Amino acid sequence: MITTDILIVGGGIVGVSIAKELASRYPDLNITLLEKEAAVARHASGRNSGVLHAGFYYSPDSLKAKFTVEGNKLLTDYCLRHNLTINRCGKIVVAKDAEELEGIFELKRRGDKNGVTLEIVDENRLTELEPNARTFDKALYSPTTSVVNPTEVVEHIARNLKGNVKILLNEKFIKRDDSSTVSTNKQKIKFRYVINSAGLYADKIAHQFGIGQKYTLIPFKGLYLEYKDTSLIQKHIYPVPNLKNPFLGVHFTITAAGKVKIGPTAIPAFWRENYQGLSRFSLNEFFEVLYHETRLFFTNAFNFRSLAFEEMKKYCRNYFIQQSVHLVNKIDTNKFGNYLNPGIRAQLLDTETLKLVMDFVVEHGENSTHILNAVSPAFTSSFSFSKFIVDEVEKRMELKMQT
Question: In terms of residue numbers, what domain contains 77?
Answer without folding.
Answer: 1-83+149-214+352-403
